[in-house]
Amino acid sequence: MSVTVACDKALENPVGSTGFAVFGKMHFAYEPLTNKPVAFAHLTADQRATMDAAYLNVIALVERLHRQFLEVVKLELDAQGVHDINNVQAMILFNIGDLEMTVGELTLRGCYLGSNVSYNVKKMVEAGYIMQERSLHDRRSVRVRLTDKGQELRKKITAMHQRHVGALVKGPLKDEDLTAVHATLRRLDRFWTQLVELGPRALQMISPAA
Question: Which domains does the chain have, with CATH numbers?
Answer without folding.
Answer: 1-43+175-210 (no CATH), 70-168 (1.10.10.10)
